[in-house]
Amino acid sequence: MPATPTWPPKSAPRLFVEQGLSLGAQIVIEGGQAHYLARVMRVAAGDAVVLCDDQTGEWAARVISADKRTVTLTPETLLRPREQVPDFMLCAALLRKDRFDLVLAKACELGVRKIQPVLTRRCVADKLNLERAHAVLTEAAEQCARTALPELAAPVKLDALLNGWPVERALFFADENGGEIAAQQFSANPGAAALLTGPEGGFDLAERTAIRALPQARAITLGPRILRGETAAIAGTALWMGICGDWAR
């Protein structure tokens, strides 16, 4: 007797939707997502699609109807509740578009809860298209099967970031001029944390002095080599996740 195939199949498309999901609700997808499902993935009535709403979690939904402009589905099974990601915030100085896209995508994959773009004196870029950045994060979350989208804040100047820094959150400062060993500092300061990484040209002396003056700041080194901004953000995040985050559980 042949085995009953699993449902939804592992090949089912996966999408984040803005509508709240619940058992038996009718979900209508339009625009680019409808085109992706109907024209690229070729879904038809009865097929499975995995949906996430960044509220309730991940659902297996069944296609009711599909055409080139709209796809209608109904959620049938809650597969996973919305995950609780570690309380880790990445404060990354703005980089050129392609490099910052990489930071956004990998931060999402690594499990960052919030991403705070930072404007410093040596930033080459000074603007961020938040709608486009959100799309990058959503695509990354769909790819890595994450059920909670990272919070994305609007860019803020470094001095404003430091002036409003919360007392209870440690700020690990990736200082290219040197600091304490990152792994040791992460282990010694568990709890709510953030990582601050710099732009292509690094922080200037005044910025470095201001950061080190913050009581919650911990200057760290990420090894013997000078890392590019995107490398520092990704490597530092991965290291924290391995020591204090959900990789360690």
Can you walk through the features of this model?
The protein has 249 residues and is α/β, with parallel strands linked by helices. It has 2 domains: 14-81, Ribosomal Protein L25, Chain P, CATH 2.40.240; 88-243, 3-Layer(aba) Sandwich (Alpha/beta knot), CATH 3.40.1280. It is built from 7 helices and 13 strands. It has helices spanning 31-40, 97-110, 130-144, 158-163, 182-188, 205-213, 229-243; strands spanning 14-16, 27-30, 48-52, 57-66, 70-81, 88-93, 114-119, 151-152, 156-157, 170-174, 180-181, 193-197, 217-221. The strands form 2 sheets. Strands 6, 7, 8, 9, 10, 11, 12 and 13 form an 8-stranded parallel beta sheet that branches. Strands 1-3-4-5-2 form a 5-stranded mixed beta sheet. Helix 2 crosses helix 3 (130-144), helix 2 (97-110) runs parallel beside helix 7 and helix 5 packs across helix 7 (229-243). The chain is elongated.
Number of helices: 7
Please provide the ordered H/E string of secondary-structure elements.
EEHEEEEHEHEEHEEHEHEH
Question: What share of the residues lie within helices?
Answer: 25-40%
* Number of domains as seen in the coordinates: 2
The coarse silhouette is elongated
- Give me the CATH architecture of the largest domain, please: 3-Layer(aba) Sandwich
Give a count of the beta strands, DSSP E runs of length 2 or more: 13
Q: Biggest sheet: strands, sense, closure?
A: 8 strands, parallel
CATH superfamily of the largest domain: SPOUT methyltransferase, trefoil knot domain
Our estimate of the beta-strand percent is: 25-35%
* Name of the top-level CATH class of the largest domain: Alpha Beta
Mean of residue pLDDT values: 95
Uncertain parts:
none
CATH topology of the largest domain, what is it called?
A: Alpha/beta knot
Rounded to the nearest angstrom, the distance between the terminal CA atoms is 40 Å
**Helix- and strand-based class?**
alpha/beta
What is the alpha-carbon Rg in Å? 21 Å
